């Protein structure tokens, strides 16, 4: 992809909802506003999502074992991610591991 094709592709993404994963396992979802040569990305109206802590997962597993009783135990446990409204955010390109179009 040459420079003009890349620019056109990025222009088509402006205002669209992106999901960005970072090196510290956080995920940001927001409207794509801009980027630069260092791959820094600006999102508007964004939310931050964090993976559950180890203690939260262990508590869910313990609760699942308790509620299952004598029945066959489930091998999967559902634990919600925590989230918060961020608004406008700059995500440094060096910390981005994955970008998805929502």
UniProtKB/TrEMBL annotation:
Organism: Penicillium antarcticum
Membrane-spanning segments: none
Secretion signal, residue range per the UniProt entry: none
Coiled coil ranges: none
A single cellular component GO annotation: NatC complex
SMART domains recorded: Sm
PANTHER family reported in the protein's UniProt record: N-ALPHA-ACETYLTRANSFERASE 38, NATC AUXILIARY SUBUNIT, SMALL NUCLEAR RIBONUCLEOPROTEIN-ASSOCIATED PROTEIN B AND N
Sm domain sequence ranges: 8-101
Record's subunit section: Component of the heptameric LSM1-LSM7 complex, which consists of LSM1, LSM2, LSM3, LSM4, LSM5, LSM6 and LSM7. Component of the heptameric LSM2-LSM8 complex, which consists of LSM2, LSM3, LSM4, LSM5, LSM6, LSM7 and LSM8. The LSm subunits form a seven-membered ring structure with a doughnut shape.
Top-level division of the source organism's lineage: Eukaryota
InterPro entries in the record: LSM_dom_sf, LSMD1_Sm, Sm_dom_euk/arc, snRNP_SmB/NAA38-like
Name this protein carries in UniProt: Sm domain-containing protein
SUPFAM superfamilies for the chain: Sm-like ribonucleoproteins
Pfam families: LSM
């Amino acid at each position: 992809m040459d420079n003009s094709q890349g620019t056109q592709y990025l222009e088509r993404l402006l205002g669209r909802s992106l999901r960005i994963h970072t090196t510290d396992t956080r995920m940001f979802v927001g409207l794509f506003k801009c980027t630069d040569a260092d791959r820094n990305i600006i999102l508007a109206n964004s939310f931050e999502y964090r993976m559950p802590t180890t203690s939260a997962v262990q508590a869910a597993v313990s609760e699942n074992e308790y509620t299952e009783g004598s029945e066959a135990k489930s091998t999967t446990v559902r634990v919600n991610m925590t989230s918060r409204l961020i608004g406008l955010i700059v995500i440094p390109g060096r910390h981005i591991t994955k970008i998805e179009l929502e």
